[in-house]
Amino acid sequence: MRHSTRISVTFLLVSLTWIGLTDPLCAALFPQAFPTISLFKGWFFATAAALAIKLELSAEEWRRGEAEARLKDQAVRDPLTGLLNRRAFHSHLEAAVERARRVGGRLGVAFIDLDAFKAANDSFGHAFGDAVLRAVATRLRGLLRSADVAARLGGDEFAVVAEPNNGDSIERLAGRLLAAFHEPIDVEGFSHSITLSVGIAHFPDHGERAEQLLRAADVAMYKAKGKGRNGFAIAGDGPQPMPLGVAPSAVSDSVRSPPSQRREPSQMGVRYCWDRQHASSEGRQKNDVD
Which residues form the catalytic set? Predict the structure, then answer.
């Protein structure tokens, strides 16, 4: 039954019940004043019914608005991490490029990939992999400026657009990311260490359209992976690796990490397991880039 029909039927039933019960009772108790009482009773019922219908319609509008907001959010958000999905990120990047083009500004795009994630996901299970992706998204979200926008593009791939890109802000963001992930992440009650490979592209240096920038950043990310992972590369430049415990020069003193203490393999958590699994899979499949 449609909502409007339900309201109409409810109003009809209440009206019949009100008239059927109150009219005979008032006529029997107050025969002389019944016409006046009937008029007052009619006005009272009409006012109360109008208020009730108004409240119900307002509640229905609110519920519909909430449902539409949820659907809209689901259309642009990655359900696992809560970040923008690929389609929404591409739309945002296109709009950002147009804004930068109008004002003659710059912006930066970072393409982020977790090192050896597929091997870890296959070894420890998809539930573990999902928990890692959620933890990575949470840490990534905490490193962004208010103007930066992050997305999960799919699998273990993330992206960030820095707008406006003042100087080396996207490089500094990449440095903060690499430095921040020196600290293990907590997954399922255990601490796990992971590393990232990041590719960077600038507008308009490496492309004047959203797809060109994203592609350039993707290619740069694979350059960083090809030179040992755990670093970032700029499109058109050489890779800039970020060894564990060594902060890049682009990172300010406030985010520079102290040299990490070497741990035994049994304490190294997921990095040790991921690298060992990745090495064995490389031996079987000769796959240099993951």
Answer: 156
What pLDDT is attached to residue 214?
94
- Whole-angstrom CA distances from 250 to 56, 114, 256 are 58, 21, 9
Q: Give pTM, 2 decimals.
A: 0.62
Q: Is the pLDDT of residue 254 over 50?
A: no
| Spatial separation of the C-alpha atoms in residues 87 and 58, rounded to whole Å | 33
SS (H, E, C) 213-267: HHHHHHHHHHHHHHCCCCEEEECCCCEEECCCCCCCCCCCHHHCCCCCCCCCHHH
Asked which of 85-94, 107-116, 267-276 is least confident by mean pLDDT, the reply is 267-276
What's the pLDDT at 273? 34
Any idea where the domains of the chain sit in the sequence?
A: 3-76, 86-285
Q: What angle do CA 198, 204, 210 make, to 5 degrees?
A: 65
Between residues 54 and 19, the one the model is more confident about:
54
Rounded CA separation 193/186 (Å): 9
Yes or no: domain 86-285 corresponds to CATH 3.30.70.270: yes
DSSP code string of the chain: --HHHHHHHHHHHHHHHHHHHHHHHHHHH-TTTHHHHHHHHHHHHHHHHHHHHHHHHHHHHHHHHHHHHHHHHHHHB-TTT-SB-HHHHHHHHHHHHHHHHHHT--EEEEEEEETTHHHHHHHH-HHHHHHHHHHHHHHHHHH--TT-EEEEEETTEEEEEESS--TTHHHHHHHHHHHHTTS-EEETTEEE---EEEEEEEETTT-SSHHHHHHHHHHHHHHHHHTTSSEEEETTS-EEE--TT---TTS-GGGPPPPPPP--GGGSHHHHHHHHHHHHHHHHH-----
